Structures are given as structure tokens and as C-alpha cells.
């Protein structure tokens, strides 16, 4: 990492760019644009809190990933949550209640965390938690969902709480989406998109980028289709091989360079949508942003983990606090050992170095 690299400045700039892009993308819908303008103020206040903490020697990341349930109604090929045994068909046991999650959300807001990504399992199974999240307008909650549970009842909730933004998982066109997520899922996703467009609900799409679909999901045709459906933000998430059987699907340097160049072209030609790449080029961010550098993960039982792909924890927020979790021995050791800045083949550096992570526990 370059000696003059300022992580807080880098993260704050990234957050501001996302918010500015979202405001621009929602100008055609007064309700959306009014909310985004209000959220822009909250985002600046959160940034001030993080900057103040930085001056006091404490680093607060702007992002939290919250896996609010371990249950899911699909069996997607290559699902990291099922591979890590963080997702199952059985009834959830000892998972955080809606009140416990709301306490986490409120504390996160007070610390200066401005984005909380709701994941699972399938997060829309936990309507109680999503409702609790909606009651905290200072935080933007992208809901990473498979889209199959969006119905009229959810539309009412999403119109009431504009800080809840469904992000529907899609792998490309119908063939590639159904190949990974199951037959008929693509049609359910596009139906949900049509329903949200009709009701002027802000939503986005999440695309798992692999060596097999890279060209398709960055094509003009695919993006035009999403735009026509009313999609306002696209998250490109690099495929992380959580088993040793399919490392060839993870984007390497060549694919990352292609995605970076293609995104630059897309952003210049399309101002109606926001495009976010995750994790993106780690060299520009001084390494991996997990373990509290830029984000961290809380699982459905309250365990604070470096990220969803690295399910290791030495502290539970049920017995402590978000602040204590950010200062856990595991997080501090990962940052001190410089493992997050190490070169790696592709996918997740913590998954590749999982034996070292386990040793730190």
C-alpha cells in the first residue's frame, strides 16, 4: 500500500460518488430523488462522524453486510452461503430477533455507518427485520434478494420506506440465470422488476461476474434491457470460488482489466443508472476492504466476521456491541498481519489464506 494512501478519504469519496450518481439516476421520479437528496445530507453527517473517529484513532467503515437469515427458498449453483453452512433449508435456530437487529442498525448509524447491505439466505423471508430497517431513514439498505418473494404486500412496504432498495440477483439473460438459479427464476425476477417499475419503487440488480458471463452482463443489450425494466443501479460482484472445484470461473487480472475498462465506457454513456464493482481493483483501494477496513459482516446469529466469504468470528454482537466487534482481536490481527494487502490469484484473499485466518483465531 502506498505510504500516502488515505483509506478514509478513498472510502468517503466512493460513498459520495455513489450518492451523487443515485440522485442523478432518480431525477425522473420525484419521490425517489427527494429521498436521495435527504439521504445525501445524512450521508455527509455519517462521513463527518467517521472523520472525527479517524482523528481520534478509531476507524469506522461506511459499509456493513448483515445476513439477517440463514434460510433460503432457492438452491443456486456455487452459493457461498450454503458451502459455508451459513444457509440451510431447516428452520433457523438462535438467530437474531428484529429488535436485536434494529439495535445493531441504530448503533451503526450512530457510529457513522451509512450503508447496510441486507443479505441471507434470502433476506425477504425476514419481513420483520426489513420493516425495522425501514424505520431508520439515515441508512440506505440495499436488499440483496433473489427477487422471487416480491409481491403486492412488499410493494406497500417499499413505497412507505424509500431507504429500502431491493437489489435483484441476475446472471445475464434467461438461459444463464436459470442455469444457476433454477428453472423459471428469470421470469419471476423480470416480473418483480415490472411490478416495481409500475409502482415507481427504486431497485437495482446484482450480477455475479464470472469468466463465463463477463461479456454478456456488460453488453449494451443486457444493460438496455435492465434500463427498460426500470433498474437504477447495477452491482457487479466478482465470483468467489468457495470450493476448489471451480476456480476457473473467478475473474483474473485480464477479466478485471476488461471489466474496469468496460465500466468506464458504460458510465460515460449511461447516466440513468449507477454502476458499482465489488470488490473492484483492490490495488486502487490499498488491498482488500474486509475486516472493518471498508466493510465487515454480521451473520444471522450475531457473529462479526471479516466478510461473508470468510466465516470466522471471535466476537458476537449479541453479547457486545458493533464498536467492540470492529475492534475485535481477529479484525485487528488481520489488519496488523497485512494479509488484506497480499497478492492473490483472484476471488477472495481471505478464502485463499483461510488456514492463516484460522490460525489467528
Largest β-sheet summary: 5 strands, parallel
Enumerate the spans where pLDDT stays under 50 for 5 or more consecutive residues.
Answer: none
Radius of gyration: 19 Å
**Any idea what the shape is?**
globular
Q: Which bin fits the share of residues in helices? A: 40-55%
End-to-end CA span:
25 Å
Structural class assignment: alpha/beta
Number of helices: 15
Give helix and strand order, one letter per element, not per position: HHEHHEHEHEHHEHHEHEEEHHHH
Strand order of the largest sheet: 3-4-5-6-7
Number of strands: 9
How much beta, percentage-wise? 5-15%
What is the average per-residue confidence, as pLDDT, rounded to a whole number?
88
Quick structural overview:
The chain has 361 residues and is α/β, with parallel strands linked by helices. Helix content is 43%, strand content 12%. The strands form two sheets. Strands 3-4-5-6-7 form a five-stranded parallel β-sheet. It has a four-stranded mixed β-sheet with strand order 2-1-8-9.
Explain this structure to me?
- The protein is globular, with a radius of gyration of 19 Å.
- 46% of the residues are buried.
- It starts with 6 loop residues before the first helix and ends with a helix.
- It has a 5-stranded parallel β-sheet.
- The model has no long low-confidence stretch (mean pLDDT 88).
- It is an alpha/beta fold and 361 residues long.
- It has helices spanning 7-25, 30-55, 80-83, 98-111, 127-134, 152-160, 174-181, 185-198, 214-217, 220-229, 253-269, 322-326, 329-336, 349-352, 354-360, and strands at 63-67, 115-119, 141-145, 164-169, 204-209, 233-238, 274-278, 295-298, 304-305.
